Amino acid sequence: MSDGPSDRDDDSYLVAHRRDKLARLRSAGNAYPNGFRRDTLAEHLHGRFDAVDATSLAAETRVYRLAGRLMAKRVMGKAGFAQLQDASGCMQLFVQQNAVGEAAYEAFKNFDVGDLVGAVGTVMKTKTGELSLKLQRLELLAKSLRPLPEKWAGLTDTETRYRQRYLDLIVNRQARETFLIRAAVVRFLRQFLDSLGFVEVETPMLQPLPGGAAARPFVTHHNALDRDLYLRIAPELYLKRLVVGGFERVYELNRNFRNEGLSSRHNPEFTMLEFYQAYADYREAMELVETMLRDCALAVCGCTAVRYQGANYELGRPFRRLTLAQAVAEANPDLDPARFGDRNHLAEAARARGVLVGREMGAGKLLTEIFEKTVEAKLIEPTFITEYPTEVSPLARCNDANPEVTDRFEFFVAGRELANGFSELNDPDDQALRFRRQAEAKAAGDEEAMVFDADYLRALEYGLPPTAGVGLGIDRLVMFLTDSPSIRDVLLFPAMRPER
RNA sequence: GGGCCGUUAGCUCAGUCGGUAGAGCAUCGGACUUUUAAUCCGCUGGUCGCAGGUUCGAAUCCUGCACGGCCCA
């Protein structure tokens, strides 16, 4: 950690007390032993014995070994209770002086909440019926020098939760569950695509040309080659090269980097799933996304009904579909849909809605701006928006009936874009034309415009099969499935400004 | 980038009109062999985010900055 607090700058009296204890441990032997082995987990014991009555438990003579963090300590003279937390859950420990011995009991009294301990004993039930481990032995495995947040109020300060995620994970069950669900989502998506014959690949994160999306890249430098490289903003162009190469179903699930601001929906590095399927179009891709999201919710949450920030969502029904133009017309009744190709009309409407209209913006770009301004946040129910203007879709295939729009969709839920997909543009001459238009936009000042990628064109010239592709934002999907209001809640270590 | 809100003990939070810095939990000492927010008794613990300014006097008012949150771009 480069931006952490300076060395030992905040030793309080609380830390000092614990350091004294550590010093005594050191003089008595190895203060950080690594010899203790557990043979079970808290949840295993609960699963096995919670339903067993106290008298039957009293006959259980098997000795179990647990290890974990001490989360509570209640000492009453010559006996005490403690709470041990391991990766699976919690188990109460019952410590009696005459069972563990006087020396071990004294040591126990000196343990602090937060210490890592090993506990050996038999199962029992207390008089209130709580399953506990009646200890024969208790040993310290690692001393905790800093006090944990208070047991009742816990840790709520968002800044500390993000900067010291380990603390958040120790004390906030919700945080732990969020990241377990995240892992389950990723696991599900891989299984889902694998089962359909998709091949997972890894393509460059350091790219000579940043391509595949409209975004500003991070720039870095390769010393040996003495050239700048770009952290990828998307893997798209590489994945389509692989489709050219015969990987007809291919996906990558990994990090992208975009040099943009931080917000509750944006982190400079974020995780994207991109998958490509040859001999399919965007409509089939939509079907696949529908199935994928429904099955994902089912696998991860157990049902297709999702509660997010106080509202209910149903992923079990087919998602609403409408074109971008329809959506704009619906949300802007004062606009004339018949004039959606009229740049002047749209420029005026865009300006009236606070859009900074640039000279290089055509009708398609302006319509999209108006869409983003007036529609996106209102797309609450799961919705596919289709027919994005060709002008804003330089990698998507034109619609056969109307070349002004592309065979493209974006998926929205809870007012947020979760996925983007289209029938891939596989006509190399059309792609060359689109790249040139992007280069013109870049020259005119659009910093997010794409760069001309000659090698990608060369690949297209060998022949890209008709293909559909989709990008799915994993962080936003996990936000949705874990009822998390901020992207920072689903990133273990979100980007933060340096501390102090 | 702009607006609003926040930053006080390890944690969660009070702090009135500008007049010696408070609580709960945790810590520390003592009692206690079925507690579970254990209980009881006693004691600790502070660079009030940072830097200036106003004032006899600033946690409090003003300015700037840092970090965080929400909203907007």
Description:
- Helix content is 34%, strand content 24%.
- Strand 4 (116-125) and strand 5 form a beta hairpin.
- It is an alpha+beta fold.
- Residues 1-9 have low confidence and may be disordered.
- The strands form four sheets. It has an eight-stranded mixed sheet with strand order 6-10-11-18-17-16-15-14, sandwiched between helices.
- Helix 7 (165-171) packs across helix 8 (173-195), helix 8 (173-195) crosses helix 10 (282-301) and helix 8 (173-195) crosses helix 16.
- It binds one RNA strand of 73 nucleotides through residues 10, 12-15, 17-18, 72, 74-81, 83, 92, 94, 96-98, 112-113, 126-128, 130, 132, 146-160, 162, 171, 261, 264, 354, 356, 486, 496-500.
Task: Write a concise synopsis of the structure shown.
This protein is of the alpha+beta class and 500 residues long.
Distance between the first and last residues' Cα? 14 Å
Return residue spans where pLDDT drops below 50 for at least 5 consecutive residues: 1-9
How many beta-strand segments? 18
Largest pleated sheet: 8 strands, mixed
Overall mean pLDDT: 94
Helix content: 25-40%
Quaternary organisation: single chain
Shape, per Cα inertia axes: elongated
Topology:
Layout: H1 13-28, H2 42-49, H3 54-58, E1 64-76, E2 79-86, E3 89-96, H4 97-100, H5 102-110, E4 116-125, E5 131-142, H6 158-163, H7 165-171, H8 173-195, E6 199-200, E7 206-207, E8 219-222, E9 227-231, H9 236-244, E10 249-257, E11 269-278, H10 282-301, E12 305-308, E13 311-314, E14 320-323, H11 324-331, H12 343-352, H13 363-374, E15 383-386, E16 408-413, E17 416-423, H14 428-443, H15 454-463, E18 467-473, H16 474-481
Parallel strand pairs: 3-5, 6-10, 14-15
Antiparallel strand pairs: 1-2, 1-4, 2-3, 4-5, 7-9, 8-9, 10-11, 11-18, 12-13, 15-16, 16-17, 17-18
The structure holds one RNA strand of 73 nucleotides.
